[in-house]
Write the structure tokens for this entry.
Amino acid sequence: VQLVESGGGLVQPGGSLRLSCVGSGLAFGRYVVSWHRQGAGKERELVATISSGGDSNYVDSVKGRFTISRVNAKNTAYLEMTSVEPNDTAVYYCHAAEPMGRFGTLEYWGRGTQVTVSS
């Protein structure tokens, strides 16, 4: 099983960036997919989540600026980032989880992609 993120890079404040997460070796459409980020010296935080049916949730700091989406037929999830701020600088990780009831949760992480917001 692999989750591979791409699309990170250097972007100016106020700019936009789209991150992609491609899954392989798993029934991607069954998984809840989320994006997390970890800035230097900070704890990893949840940024956005999208259910298998497409319902999404966001941390308050990115509401109205970031959009999470998915195309199950392509085993791909996206994080569209707009009006980025220096505080958005972090390594962004893709996470996929499938609750297995009393057997726990099956989950996987990608290796991350660096996003740097700077002029």
Summary: DSSP finds no helices and eleven strands in the chain.
